[in-house]
Design goal:
heterodimer, A: 420 residues, mainly alpha, five-stranded antiparallel β-sheet, two-stranded antiparallel ribbon, 16 helices, 6% strand, B: 339 residues, two-stranded parallel sheet, extended
Chain lengths: 420, 339
Amino acid sequence: MRKRFHGLKRIKLRQSWNKYNLFNFSRVEPSPKNTERTFFQQKWTAKALTRAYHGETVREKQWTRTFRRTIRSVVPMDYKMLAEKDGSEQAEGRGSGLEPPPDQKTKPFPRTPYLNMTYAPMERRLDTAIFRALFASSTRQARQFVVHGYVRVNGQKMIYPGYQLNPGDMFQVEPDRVLYATGAPKDKFERRAGRKIRAKYSKKASTSEAPDETEPRTPKSDPSPESISTDKTPKGTLQSLLGQAKELLATPSTSLTAKRKQDLRAFQRTVKRTLGSPKAMTATSLDSQLAEIVARMNVAPQTRPASPSSSTTEVPELSTPELQAEAATLDSTQLRTLRDALKDARENPVDPSKPYATPWRPREWMSAFAFVPRYLEVHPRVCAAVYLRHPVARPGLAEVPTPYGTETNTLAHNWYLRRR
Amino acid sequence: MFRWLNGPGAVFRHPLPGSTNYLNAYDRDGRLIRAIDRSLGKKEQKMEEDEDEIDEDEEVDEDGEIIPKIKQKSKKPRIKETKDEPPLPKENAEDLVPFPMNRQFRSQHVLSEELKDAIYEMVMVDGKSVRNVSATLGVEMNRVGAVVRLKAVEKEWEKKGNPIAFSYAKAILGMLPSTPYVPNDPITHESINDLPVHRATQIQIFHPVSESRHFTRRDAGKVFDRELKPAEDRVPHTELVQLQKWRHEGKLPKERIQLQREKDAKDAQSKKVLERMRKEKAAREIKKVETERSEFRFQDIRIESVRLTGRNKEGVGARYGIPPQDRKKGQVKIPTSVG
């Protein structure tokens, strides 16, 4: 890796979400001063600037071989026009169609920015596509994910970052890696908590020599809430959730808002109350337990404003009278906060063993770079995306995400036409 | 640099709730341009401009500069409520430009989760065809297929109990512009009838024809290339064109549906015939000889099938006689296709 990837003196824009890069994006000049420079010099600069952004890991010789002068484009067609006219109206009059009256003149058709598509073949690369699908914070990181074997294409492991995606290829990145790449980093205390957990597990592993007594829990295969729920009783899971909430409140992270703290405290209270009533522990798993609580919460707000007779009809639906009494003590806003907190805690748990700050939140400076081009269909829930088709140019719009304007791209395209 | 990051650039540190947060939406001092405009009292004007932004085909003038579109049909109020501030107007085309130097690239809308769910339901539960769903929701056909595939992966993960990245998905969708799902009046997500520009039509031809001749699109295509079909046969949704033609001819809706059914049946029939012919041809080419021990199959081969390098996979002896070159210098080992 070069010494200054995000240089501040000679500005090179990069495919990354770095804050230095954002600063460079904000101040870069719209067009380099091309007066008093030869055509060769202009092309050289344009090539250097654009190549620093598009596939700087790709060697120049490799790129010149991949470059294609042909550019894909489409024209959106109106099916009504196609059905009603056969095209002969364009040859009417003196041969180029009738002149419309001045008040009915249509707007000029926007030009297709063909030359902004110079680097379209680069967008086919697997590492670039991963970055474009917002699964990595830079193309270099995406490349690393591929090389380290966290990426699968059509269900098979793919270790070549230069793999040229074909239309219809589905690529998946390990969700934990994606969360690490796009999530906020841990602060000092969270890192320390993680170290402690790792030390604990390593000590356990060294002391208990019997291999098949307990499942080998390395810090990497972390105790996620699902794994807890399988081997503990529901009461245990609820207690662990409560513990997590406590821990979260105890961490001195500044990102915790007052609202969230309130939510968590409300959540803590309700969990305590539920644990207090022993008969409520009939559910077999965490999910059914949570569903029961949520169902109770759904019942309560309806009964509260309504007449008391309706609340008496709801009694058999709840498992025990204690639960009914319990639900009656909470008001609707409390119940809502409890439901939100429960949902949030289940989906986004506190877990010091993860390599990113938990509960997960997006990293800083990310939103200015977040866009998904149309040639990809991304499904962030499973960290998978489909490469639908090759990027195309259409009137007024080019699909290749390039930070440079038409002028720079034209010069770069001219450079690769080989006649200098 | 840090003066900028802590000053005007501080707005980019965290996402703007309920909106995109791109460089072009702010001025040099880090103020949100559309918020300033509103405070200057241009509210009503601005609202009209912003109204029809969700559609794909925004107006762009000849040099690619975006012209704010005039309101076409009234949709739901697109004002976003924030907690303690007055509502922020919806972002316009200028605000969706992530690279200030490149106006020809815009962050385009993505499918919202509800729309994805609706697509999956329509295809997998209601059993509608991809073509039909694409036309009703205004989503490209290959995108419909991809959504169904990805949703199926999600369902499988749910069944297996794999952790699903809900918080990540929510955060990402919050930063991107997305097309909502309106069940009765679906919003067009993208243009579905994109005509790919054919290589043969990228040249200029001077082709004189007599004035009396009725020179149509079909004739013009033939001038470019003998095989080139007219646009109505090359767009993805040819059936929409046909339906519109019938409507133009004054056919009643019942008749149109009947005609459409007949056409579908005919297409299916012709597909079957083609498949049968292909199979028959294959059977004719392979001569089978039954013996006591086994069945011999004889097939004519063409020596040219090995192609220029003599190593084509279609050629004779591809699996037996050709030595592998994978240890040679300069051989690219990256697969060209997977799965």
